[in-house]
Amino acid sequence: MNWDDIRYFNAVFQCQNISRAAKILHVSPQTVARKIIALESKLNSILFIRHPRGYQPTADAIVLATEVEKAESVLITLQNSFLNKSNKFSGTVRIAAPELIATEILLPAFKPFLDEYPDLKIELITGIHTVGIAQGEADIALRLIQPEQGTLTIKQVGTMSSALYSLTDDQVDLKNSKLIGWDSNIDLPSSRWLRRITGREPDLKLSSLNAQKAAIQAGLGIGILPCFIAKNFIRIKRPYLLEEPLWLVTHSSAKASLRIRLVYDEISKIIKNNQSNLHQKF
Question: 0.70 exceeded by the pTM?
Fold first, then answer.
């Protein structure tokens, strides 16, 4: 097994879809399928169950993914150890991230890293609008929607769960309760999910998650919030839980500078360390 095998395996494991994996790898779906078949033959194992909805990882694939992640971590540690001896990291890295993940997860964890690399400068762009990596608007982006175009390095670094919340009541009438949600011009998984489970548009439409949180806090209605910021609210007791993958995106490996890669790896580590907070279950 070589590193090329790992690239193809990781793409299919993350996407669970041959066509999407092929777009990321910039090859044909047929090439991806052949690579996976060849890898399974090398390992004498079935890594994916093929079905019309995509490629479902088997238990062996999950084990392999865990071992690959460990190997990548060791390689990154070794690489950074050698680089630190011969390079002084300096310059600016521009990061785009959802506002509350930036303020509640990333920024509180950044101090030890920035103390270690005092010449690194961070520019943090928050908001809901997509910031282009290929266009040079940012060096790294943490996204809830997976990019499908451009020469990019894309990695799923975690999962974020959201639920429907109210200020005081866990048994509400979804047909008659006031709904708080995103502005109509904003198309996010949570806005589509709210329409799907309630069958209607929000009564109060807002353009930021902080504003929605404040509206729920003021008792103006019920709305969807990421579980990690909703500790003071009441989760509505229904089988509703939205799980969104968190994608970390940067330039392709050939284009990313050493300082960008260093920050990219640090963000990946921070999200991984906060998974129990970000990804909650009923």
Answer: no
